[in-house]
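Exercise 7 asks you to align residues with tokens for two separate proteins.
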Amino acid sequence: MRLHFISFVMILILVSTGIDILATTADTTKEERFRKSIGFYYGLGPVVQTHAFVKGENPNNEAYGIYQSISLKYGIHTDGRKNWHQLYGYPVWGMGLYQGFFMNDYDELGNPSAAYMFIDLPLKRWKKWSLDYEMGFGIAFNWNRHDLRESQYYYPIGSFSTVFIDAAFNAKIPLGKYFNLMAGLTYTHFSNGAVRLPNLGVNMVGARVELQYIFKERPEFIHKEIPKYLKEWEWIALLAPSMRQVGFDYIVENGDTLARAFDYGILSFSTTFNRQISHKIKFGVGADISYNAAYGADTMMVNGIPEKAPFETIDKILVGIYPSFELVLGKLSMIAQPGFYVYRKDVEGSEAPTTYQRIGVKYHFWDHLVLGINIRAVNFSKADFIEWNIGYRIKWQKSYRDK
């Protein structure tokens, strides 16, 4: 149930990325609507050897090798009607369906399918080609369910659904009025943010090639003078409920290893002051206070059965501070917040990190309501849990030169 709720929130945010464009499209005549396209890509590359299971400690005693993927994409081409179209080089955004194939999995993990939204941002345009960065974010399904420890193996994915993240650098070459050919390198990540264990994650890198067909020819770009941005201040308050599992290993009487996972709730409140210095960039500073029942979690044996150990609520309180960076695309923002804990209880025998990282997206509905989803990570590499946010913001302008 929790995974389905996360899926609903993520899809809501991702679909919202196109609200501005769709609203503009609805107000125009049929001839003035944004150009649409359909694309198909094929990808090929290795599974990244990040943990023992994919290195060969699995029922097949074989390291994971080649991974293939295909995707069908529906794109909407911006043309400059809104300022952010021109500021970001007239990007293409849209949605896609994805299918991956492990070549030597033998049905251990399953072959993930995904529904996602993407944005393709040109980094540099030349006369006959461009270099683009594409980011896709969505939900993957069709994983085989596994327990925390199964048949003496630690599987990397235990849930039916996960987050799908795909990043690519592509060279794009126009082929006449209707086609684009794209080729580049891609990185794909699957993880469920420890909502359900196991969650070691699966990563792939590789090359891909895509052919894109544009209906009614490629768009003509609108070039206009962008007005100077009037710098603004912003205050945001967010409430973020979360959930994660923590796994424990036990040695039983016959010497076998028993693994169990327990659910723990997390609730965070964060507040951030931002200064938007341009149409594209916000900088700020913030603080958060969290109740994290998973922090320093322990268990105890009761009549031979593991149960959660009792704890004091104050021991689960963590306070952090962070700088904040946002990349603004209309009402959508991509955020990065590297944090540092200024208060937390030391956990004996644990090497708990003193820093954390938050990356995610948020969408501003009307002027004040904010919805978003973040991945909270540690050590810049491991997803700790997923935050889904609801909040309120206030914006105002002030220049000390006014006087």
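Second protein for Exercise 7:
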Amino acid sequence: MSERPHRGTIFVEDAELLSQQEFPGQQFVVRLRAAQCAAAATPGSFAHLSCDPLLPMRRPLSIMRTDPAAGWIEILYKIVGPGLSALSKQPTGATLSVMGPIGKGFTPSTSRPRTLLIGGGVGIPPMIFLAESLKGRRDADWQPLVLMGSEIPFPFRARPSTILVPAMPDGVIACMPLLEDWGVPSRLASLAGFPGCFEGYVTDLADAWLSTLDAKALAEVEIFACGPTPMLMATAKLARRYGVPCQVSLEEFMACAVGGCAGCAVPVITDSGLAMKRVCVDGPVVDANAVLPPAA
């Protein structure tokens, strides 16, 4: 029997809904008391959450923040379908079943501390989790830069940044306040004309920043990304062009989320050739070059 490293690391627990905050664009941040999940979660892992006691199917949702000491996790989601609509109506104090943390997360290399984190839409949460994790690590001189893109209002009230980011295009000053308060630089991109944002795709903003780095700086860069597949493909193309490693977090439809149904399997290039890997437990984080074909 083959080894299953995810066994014994996924917990099922009844979680208390502590708070739920609504943002424009039918976006919500929900905080749940789920002590086992909070203690074991890593950036890039996700939870399989029941949205309502009357709905049997769970929903896979990326973990945005955790507080292991207080025992809570935070999840950002956007209403898509009846399940998440039902979740948005759950009151404070409601009990929801949480299964997690699930999946292989991001693994930053200490030899490349200049980390570029790219999040698009509902792919933003893992980048916040990763940024917070890097902020607290002391094993390298971590220098995270978080770039986020959205065509609907961001799930926070953006403000002008006071953290200088060299070579950032003129006028691109909007940031995420939470990251700013942590001392982590961030910048926003959108085609919707939001004040202070880069006008274009978030990958175009990443390209503009990467193009200013010399060979020595690029040798310290590693890219991490989560978002829609076209964004991930564009990110992988950037990484290849600049010769830097890139890890991406994939999104697929999931039924069981623990590797049993194989409904989320995708083709991945391994040392032994092409193989089908399950996004839920073999991912969701993978090497961009192993899963995404070169973009034209």
